[in-house]
UniProtKB/TrEMBL annotation:
Residues 125-152 form a coiled coil. SMART domains: Flavokinase. Its EC number is 2.7.1.26. PANTHER family: RIBOFLAVIN KINASE, RIBOFLAVIN KINASE/FMN ADENYLYLTRANSFERASE. It catalyses: riboflavin + ATP = FMN + ADP + H(+). This is riboflavin kinase. It is an enzyme of class 2 (transferase). Residues 24-147 form the Riboflavin kinase domain. The keyword Nucleotide-binding applies. One of its GO terms (molecular function) is ATP binding.
Length: 152
């Protein structure tokens, strides 16, 4: 029955097995949330991100994902982080949009975050330079995976 499917899907998601979850759902897994204020570190030191509050949703395994961030107006290719930020030890869902934005997003604005591909598990970095290098690699990998996803 449906209960069996739900627990199976949650099991797949908790192990970042997006493909299996998609087979059961018939679509990519997604969550919805509203934009909340981040700590401002990304836009200053790293890469600007949108921070989402997705309370009430089952979240896949913590890690870094190639994602699609959907507003009411547009779908943006993105790379997303789920997990505890090493900078402040708080749990966060952060998405970096992989294109130049001609707009800003308001706190309280709602987005859907669609998970396309799991990139890697979270790791701690000794300094911001190492973290920035890894994020640069994540962005390249996400771009490539999302480009291939377009071609399907």
């Amino acid at each position: 029955g449906i209960g069996v499917h739900a627990s199976l899907i949650k099991d797949f998601l908790s192990r970042a097995n997006l493909q299996k979850a998609k087979e059961f759902l018939g679509r990519n897994y997604s969550i919805k949330g509203k934009v909340i204020k981040g700590q401002g570190l990304g836009s200053k030191e790293l890469f600007a991100t949108i921070n989402l509050d997705c309370e009430g949703y089952f979240l896949p395994q913590n890690g870094v994902y190639a994602t699609l961030l959907k507003s009411q107006r547009k779908t943006y290719k993105s790379v997303s982080f789920l997990g505890v930020r090493s900078s402040d030890e708080n749990f966060a869902i952060e998405s970096h949009i992989l294109e130049e934005l001609g707009e800003n997003f308001m706190q309280g604005e709602f987005f859907e975050l669609e998970f396309i591909s799991f990139l890697r598990e979270n790791q701690k970095f000794q300094d911001l330079k190492k973290l920035k290098n890894q994020i640069t690699k994540d962005i390249e990998q996400a771009r490539e995976l999302l480009r291939k996803n377009d071609e399907r």
